[in-house]
């Protein structure tokens, strides 16, 4: 034992004869001996659930460990609404354990009831065959090292990624969606903004490309900042003032009838919402301020493209020319300027991709989609060089494909989707140059030709033209602006 009561050397496990194990009295004696030890010890059963935690674990975590029994102890299970699932998942063994049968990891549980838990060095040892094996975990100080042979380097890299993920989950459990993980400056800035957003009820804007996961992040932030407040979702491109009023009729009545009612409206694709509907939304926000909150999801950074016509001394009214104005309404820009969160594209966060991919893999494995626990070097390299046009949603889909295809603990290059494993950066550059000259320009000219024909057939009624083209009017107006440039 060291001075702090931890074991200096790996523990010695004593084999108990089946007859002895069948004796309830002797099992109780063993349990009392383990509980008397100052070294935290827990056991994970064959089904991946916690079946025993010693008294020292209770002292270390500062909770009654009975509440952790039968919870899944698999990395990634922590993506849950129950904080105790975060704790149980943090006690799971690291990557490489299934192959080696023994492994070490510095375990960092998330804060419990706002109290930080001290990290603990833990040795994991498996006993039994694959179908009925149990995993013993004991805290201590271990000086022995694993030889760097075979796939050890790959395993050690996976363990380091697991440590980064555990630290992310421990400090950002409230907003622990895949897009928020990472070590880049973009990831750190985003987490700082989200921490503020989750701690206060205010208007909020998200700006991110398609597939950025902004909807799931916004939903989680709303649950944290206003857990008991109703949330009404609105599809921005489909709205006009009348349809918006009809969609929010129940909300408007509730706010009108009670001065204590609070409601949040989440508008998807706010920057594609027709400008008249945006104007009506700004009126509702003014009428029911501060009880009506707006969360807007946009695909682009805010651009003040809607301008009033003429002068007005009335701040509550504005004269608009719908056919020539697009983008965010100026009053909505003022509302959303309080707090906005930018979710950068995955291609701009290359250094975060190993952590993000591992987080997605943990989630799929915890859901029972497969047994793979890490990416091989070639697979990880392929993920890093791929441009990810579909961003985080494409990454999650690719990981789901890979874990289903991988028969063992490691995901190889051959298990990734074809688009990723066949991508070659050099070839992309070579094909991009002629595309800029011929393909893109040809597509642009054809698109402009179709738009012009539909406008002519619609007697230049842009709303009707947008309906025939199957796009929002705001998008059509942007296309027309591009044609006139």
Automatic annotation (TrEMBL):
Statement: the UniProt record of this protein carries the keyword Transcription regulation: yes
Phosphoprotein as UniProt keyword: no
**Its encoding gene is what?**
zraR_1
| UniProt cross-references to PANTHER family, sorted A to Z | C4-DICARBOXYLATE TRANSPORT TRANSCRIPTIONAL REGULATORY PROTEIN DCTD, TRANSCRIPTIONAL REGULATORY PROTEIN
Any single GO molecular-function term of the entry would be: sequence-specific DNA binding
Keyword annotations of the record: ATP-binding, Nucleotide-binding, Transcription, Transcription regulation
Please report the stretch or stretches of sequence annotated as the PAS domain: 26-74
Q: Name one GO biological process term.
A: regulation of DNA-templated transcription
- Record's Gene3D superfamilies? 1.10.8.60, Homeodomain-like, P-loop containing nucleotide triphosphate hydrolases
Q: Outline the extent of the Sigma-54 factor interaction domain.
A: 180-404
> Could you identify this protein by its name?
Transcriptional regulatory protein ZraR
One family name in Pfam for this protein: AAA_lid_14
The residue range of the signal peptide is none
């Amino acid at each position: 034992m060291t001075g702090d009561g931890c074991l200096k050397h790996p523990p010695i496990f004593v084999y108990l004869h089946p007859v002895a194990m069948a004796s309830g009295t002797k099992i109780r004696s063993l349990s009392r001996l383990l509980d008397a030890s100052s070294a935290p010890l827990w056991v994970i059963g064959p089904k991946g659930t916690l079946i025993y935690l010693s008294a020292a674990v209770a002292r270390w975590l500062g909770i009654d460990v009975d509440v952790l029994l039968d919870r899944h102890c698999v990395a990634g299970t922590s993506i849950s609404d129950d904080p105790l699932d975060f704790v149980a998942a943090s006690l799971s063994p690291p990557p490489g354990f299934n192959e080696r049968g023994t492994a070490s990891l510095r375990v960092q549980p998330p804060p419990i009831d706002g109290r930080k838990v001290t990290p603990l060095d833990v040795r994991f040892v498996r006993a039994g065959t694959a179908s009925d094996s149990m995993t013993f975990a004991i805290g201590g100080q271990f000086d022995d090292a694993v030889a760097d042979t075979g796939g050890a380097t790959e395993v050690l890299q996976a363990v380091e990624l697991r440590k980064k993920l555990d630290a992310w989950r421990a400090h950002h459990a409230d907003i622990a969606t895949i897009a928020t993980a990472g070590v880049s400056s973009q990831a750190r800035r985003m987490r700082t903004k989200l921490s503020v957003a989750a701690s206060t009820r205010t208007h909020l804007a998200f700006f991110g490309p398609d597939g950025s996961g902004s909807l799931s992040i916004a939903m989680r932030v709303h649950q944290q900042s206003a857990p008991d407040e109703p949330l009404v979702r609105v599809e921005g491109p489909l709205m006009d003032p009348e349809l918006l009023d009809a969609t929010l009729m129940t909300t408007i009545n509730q706010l009108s009838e009670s001065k204590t009612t609070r409601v949040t409206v989440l508008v998807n694709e706010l920057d594609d919402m027709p400008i008249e509907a945006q104007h009506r939304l700004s009126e509702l926000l003014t009428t029911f301020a501060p009880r009506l909150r707006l969360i807007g999801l946009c695909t682009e950074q805010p651009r003040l493209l809607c301008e009033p016509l003429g002068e007005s001394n009335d701040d509550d009214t504005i004269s608009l020319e719908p056919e020539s104005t697009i983008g965010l309404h100026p009053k909505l820009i003022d509302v959303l300027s309080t707090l906005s969160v930018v979710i950068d594209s995955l291609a701009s966060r290359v250094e975060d991709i190993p952590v993000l991919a591992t987080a997605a893999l943990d989630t799929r494995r915890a859901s029972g989609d497969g047994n793979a626990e890490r990416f091989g070097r070639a697979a990880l390299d392929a993920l890093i060089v791929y441009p990810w046009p579909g961003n985080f949603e494409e990454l999650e889909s690719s990981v789901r494909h890979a874990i289903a295809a991988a028969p063992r603990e490691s995901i190889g290059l051959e298990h990734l989707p074809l688009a990723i494993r066949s991508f070659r950066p050099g070839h992309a550059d070579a094909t991009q140059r002629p595309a800029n000259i011929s393909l893109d320009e040809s597509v642009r000219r054809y698109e402009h030709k179709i738009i012009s024909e539909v406008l002519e057939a619609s007697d230049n009624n842009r709303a009707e033209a947008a309906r025939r083209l199957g796009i929002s009017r705001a998008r059509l107006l942007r296309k027309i602006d591009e044609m006139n440039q």
